[in-house]
Design brief:
Number of helices of chain A: 18
Number of domains of chain B: 1
Radius of gyration of chain B: 19 Å
Helix content of chain B: 55-70%
Number of helices of chain B: 4
Distance between the termini of chain B: 26 Å
Bound molecules: flavin-adenine dinucleotide
Strand content of chain A: 15-25%
Strand order of the largest sheet of chain B: 1-2
Shape of chain A: globular
Largest sheet of chain B: 2 strands, antiparallel
Radius of gyration of chain A: 27 Å
Largest sheet of chain A: 8 strands, mixed
Oligomer: heterodimer
Order of helices and strands of chain B: HHHEEH
Number of strands of chain B: 2
């Protein structure tokens, strides 16, 4: 290689941030592998940002060609064509060709071949001085591996601290773990099943486990909150869905009942019959006619919450859950797993505020939900400057104060986003407008939408610049032809289809449509298009600078409040637990889909039965569910019905693997359990 | 519901076994003269099954025009009603082999053609038989199948061959 260096031309690579600014320029002087990552010690192409993994990807130069490979810990390395002509081809060994007119996505950053990048000599005159230029020559080490330091161990084999023991290797010797735990006085408990998260995904998995015959004593659930619905209920409450309001879910999507029968519509009909109401049949008739002859039936938030807490009681959830935060999961050398978790201490229980624990189990289920709320960069900037301004909020955070303020004083509100939460917030603001007519709504969307996506022979309808579908995916993604197609497709096809089927949509509800039409006519609702690029405070108001699409000139809008409804979408590595898991075990990730922020949301790679195969050890198995498996074999992972499906699939897989001693859940057992459910007795 | 074609066919066959056959047996016993069984209800059931299998294929193609690729319950019922009429008319026009359309015929004096006086498959009982079958099928699909076969609803109505292991 080194004798080639003299004759080689230099290839220049630009690292651009999300706004397209060139931050760094690297000159690749010769052939070989270059590591891209966040770790100063090992990365040749260094991108110091949380969205980038320590060792993210490897860039290979061969002659005047480049290729990229994922190195496990990556966070969705993606090569996307800048023009339609160029395309990335993935070879079987994981290398993707990187043609000159394509760019690569690394976390929130993009890498480009520099325009006319083939220049004669390294360090050739470049007067555009802004980016830092680094020349990588033959002297850099090729394929450096991270030098993991061994944990200090004493004579008994016990490490001096747990983190250190876990850092040593990905396969922890059981005896050493016990010795360490004993020495550090960390309690160890052993269970058959361990569920990490404790939210809806964990709940549905545990519900299925209990129903197929696993006893409550064999299950441990670790969750930040002991109440499985807490997190979801908070999101609903913040995004202005009160208990009597209807959610975006199907009648048969019943997190408290694995059969989907009786559905919420039938239960609501029954409630109404008992109350002697004349419209008792309306819910079931709606299910019969939806969505052709009636608006799709959706259950009330309060009914769903109540049903889940009833089921939690039935299966003995309280006895299984322990309030704590999962820190790290490791494989043991005996085919099981060890979880290090921390529980909060009651006040007055000692100096520290937390206590360490270890739970050992052969079967692990991970459902930690949304890693974080995504706050737009402009809003982050603004918040850093005006930390306690209640007039700039994210829809998923508590912000009732804002509505009280608006109702009292009136004013203009900018609502950003076009998803289901945006619709709900708009509806809430519309209701406020009835009470205070000086309230005006400016609705900011990135670009106008006049016709919907096409898939197969159908086209998705559009209302008020928003594509509509009853749920967040076409219904056949839950258990129909689309799901089957997805399960059988390769990762490229999957992300292509999910891009079309998903995206930002809302439900076509009449009250919302009527309100927007009225607001448009009377002038208190106005849609605008573009990206919010700056938020400032000027003369007691917000000055919002908007960059309309297609390079039109910027416009500034004055408003009194801003509600950002653009996202819960955050990269799974924002969760420290998942980040550690991904980095330690080099877990592969799914190829991301979409064009917006959802690009950052590439989930853990799972099999069609939701197993994280890269974590398999001996007879031990790890399964995952929820948004952390996004863009995999199943589209609707982040929904109750999807979680229920994932649970059943994982359990069937365990039965099939014969590692858990579980029997197949057949029709007789199913009917017997269903009757127990109806009678409300423990499974 | 979001059935696949295989799901439609498989569910159809299961419905034939558990709903259509017993209902038809009862109808045939009720219509049978002097304690015997009548053949016509079986003719209707068989004709409806055959028409049904063809209709399912057509419905599956139409379903592709729907964004959600779903087939609402109302359409299922509409589809079943159409199937009934097609099967019924086919029997009346003597298209169904092995089944006499006419029980009693006479020669029309004006047109000099044979006209049926008494059909072997009278419309009233046929409609009742079909209505009972459709209603019970709806109950089976919405309530019984999910409880007996908890995986069925996730498989586009298929009992086997939906998933692929990877
Ligand atoms: C506003 C809103 C409305 C929705 N409406 C519907 C609907 O109508 N129908 C529907 O089907 N779906 C709906 N969803 C989606 C539904 O909420 C999710 O599918 C479901 O809650 C996801 O379950 P989960 O277990 O993956 O995550 P969660 O329910 O969020 O649970 C994850 C839990 O893990 C905990 N956790 C995270 N990290 C750790 C750690 N390191 N250690 C321990 N615990 C940890 C979290 O604190 C959390 O409690 C809605 C979502 C939102 C935001």
């Amino acid at each position: 290689m080194s004798d080639l260096t003299q004759s080689q031309t230099v290839i220049e690579i630009d690292v651009r941030d999300a706004e397209g600014r060139v931050l760094q320029r690297y000159q690749l002087a010769d052939d070989g592998d270059y590591i891209i990552g966040r770790d100063r010690e090992i990365a040749h192409i260094l991108i110091d940002d949380k969205s980038v993994s320590r060792r993210h990807a490897v860039l290979r130069r061969k002659g005047d060609r480049l290729a990229l490979a994922d190195v496990g810990s990556l966070n969705g390395t993606l090569i996307a064509p800048t023009s339609e002509r160029a395309g990335a081809r993935e070879t079987t060994d994981g290398w993707q060709d990187w043609p000159r007119d394509a760019y690569a996505t690394i976390g929130l950053f993009s890498l480009y071949w520099r325009a006319d990048a083939m220049i004669a000599e390294a360090g050739d005159g470049d007067d555009q001085a802004s980016p830092v230029i680094t020349t990588l020559g033959a002297d850099r080490g090729v394929e450096a591996t991270s030098d993991e330091q061994g944990a200090e161990a004493d004579a008994s084999g016990a490490a001096t601290d747990l983190t250190q023991l876990f850092a040593t290797t990905e396969l922890v010797p059981f005896s050493q773990l016990l010795a360490t735990a004993e020495k550090l006085d960390i309690p160890v408990e052993t269970k058959d099943y361990l569920c990490i998260g404790g939210g809806m995904g964990s709940f549905m998995f545990v519900d299925h486990l209990r129903i197929v015959g696993v006893s409550a004593q064999a299950i441990r659930v670790i969750g930040v909150d002991p109440d499985p619905v807490r997190k979801w209920a908070d999101y609903c409450q913040n995004s202005q869905i009160p208990a009597h309001e209807r959610i975006r879910s199907h009648s048969a999507s019943t997190p408290d009942n694995i059969w989907g029968f009786p559905g919420y519509a039938l239960r609501e009909t029954w409630q109404r019959v008992r109350a002697g109401r004349r419209d008792a049949l309306e819910p079931v008739l709606r299910v019969f006619g939806e969505p052709l002859f009636a608006e799709t039936y959706t259950p009330r938030l309060g009914d769903v919450l109540a049903s889940v807490s009833r089921e939690a009681q039935r299966i003995g959830w309280q006895g299984m859950v322990r309030c704590g935060r999962a820190i790290a999961l490791r494989k043991l050398d005996d085919g099981r797993y060890a979880l290090h978790f921390r529980t909060p201490l009651q006040p007055g229980q000692g100096e520290e505020t937390t206590r360490d624990w270890i739970c050992i189990a052969r079967h692990v289920h991970i459902a930690t939900g949304y890693p974080a709320i995504r706050v737009l960069t402009v809003l982050q900037d603004y918040r850093r400057r005006h930390s306690d301004d209640p007039s700039v909020v994210n829809a998923y955070e508590p912000h009732d104060e804002l509505y009280r303020m608006l109702e009292k004083r009136g004013g203009t509100v900018l609502v950003e986003g076009r998803g289901i939460v945006a619709s709900r917030i708009l509806q809430r603001l519309g209701e406020l407008h009835q009470r205070n007519p000086t309230i005006r709504i400016v609705h900011l969307m990135r670009y106008p939408v006049t016709s919907g996506h096409r898939s197969d022979l159908a086209r998705r309808p559009v209302r008020h610049h928003v594509e509509v579908q009853p749920f967040n995916w076409p219904k056949a993604c839950w258990g129909g032809a689309l799901q089957q197609r997805l399960e059988r497709a390769d990762s490229a096809k999957r992300s292509e289809w999910m891009d079309v089927w998903g995206g930002t949509t809302t439900a076509d509800r009449k009250n919302w449509r009527v309100m927007l039409a009225e607001g448009t006519r009377q002038g208190w609702y106005q849609p605008v298009f573009g990206d919010l690029i700056k938020v400032r405070r000027r003369d007691g108001q917000l000055a919002l600078t908007i960059q309309p699409p297609k390079h039109a000139s910027r416009q500034t809008i004055s408003a009194d409040a801003l509600i950002d409804c653009t996202g819960l979408v955050a990269d799974v590595t924002t969760s420290a637990f998942l980040r550690d898991l991904i980095d330690t075990h080099a877990l592969p990730r799914n190829r991301a889909a979409g064009t917006g922020p959802e690009r950052g949301m590439s989930g853990l790679r799972v099999t069609n039965a939701f197993e994280v195969k890269a974590l398999r050890t001996g007879s031990g198995r790890v399964y995952a569910a929820g948004i952390i498996t996004a863009n995999g074999p199943y589209a609707a992972v982040d929904s109750f019905l999807g979680l229920s499906f994932a649970a059943l699939r994982a359990i069937d897989d365990l039965v099939h693997s014969r590692t858990a001693g579980l029997r197949r859940f057949g029709p007789l057992a199913s009917v017997r359990q269903w009757i127990k459910w109806c009678r409300g007795v423990s499974p | 519901m979001t059935p696949t074609l295989l799901g439609r066919w498989q569910t159809r066959l299961v419905l034939f076994l558990v709903i259509v056959s017993p209902v038809t047996l009862v109808a045939s016993w009720l219509l049978g003269k002097s304690g015997g069984l009548s053949a016509e209800p079986f003719g209707l059931a068989a004709a409806m099954l055959l028409t049904g299998l063809v209709f399912e294929a057509i419905a599956q193609q139409l379903q592709r025009f729907r964004w959600d690729q779903d087939w609402p319950f109302a359409l299922f019922v509409g589809q079943a009603v159409c199937e009934f009429w097609v099967a019924f008319v086919a029997i009346r026009l003597d298209f169904v082999p092995g089944l006499e359309a006419c029980d009693l015929a006479r020669i029309d004096r004006v047109s000099r053609q044979i006209a049926c006086v008494d059909y072997a498959l009278p419309i009233g009982p046929a409609m009742v038989q079909a209505a009972v079958i459709i209603a019970l099928s709806l109950v089976f699909v919405t309530g019984v199948a999910p409880v007996l076969f908890p995986r069925w609803r996730y498989r586009g109505g298929q009992f086997s061959g939906f998933h692929r292991r990877d």
